[in-house]
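Extended Data, record DUF3300 domain-containing protein
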Amino acid sequence: MKKLMFLFVAVIGFTAISKAQVNVSINIGAQPAWGPTGYDHVDYYYLPDIDCYYDVPNKVYVYPNGNSWVRAKQLPAKYRNVDLYSAHKVVINGDNRPYMNAAKYRQEYGSFKGRHDQTPIRDSREEKYFESKGHPQHSQWVKDHPGNDGKKGGKKGGNNRNDRNDHPGPDHH
């Protein structure tokens, strides 16, 4: 009986682990070109230089405005001169609203302010990053992968250099 119970528990445990592994998603194509390389999935970036967040799946910035947090497609004018390609980004996964824990993230990652030590997706030569719409090789990647536009379930399109979410501005190419 003990062996049967052990076998049952082992099968249940293995099934749970298998399901957990299947649910891991990859969202490289959704990450902006200024995001850092090295991450197959990102929920949020914390930007210590400006104490703001970027919600990758929803493609919006989250920044403080008085005592509240604003979600917007673009950063406000006071942050427009920030070079997101060179600014340090901290990847935050598993926290659905990291800005509600802002004090924790400021304390943990405040020392990253002013660091310029990450390679942005735009500058990567790894093919997996060509899926990002802001990557210079994206158009060729789409041609080489028929039926895949670089964004699962998204609209077709090439490399839109005017997309604020992928490109902070014309001075930062």
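Summary. Residues 14-23, 150-173 have pLDDT under 50 and may be disordered.
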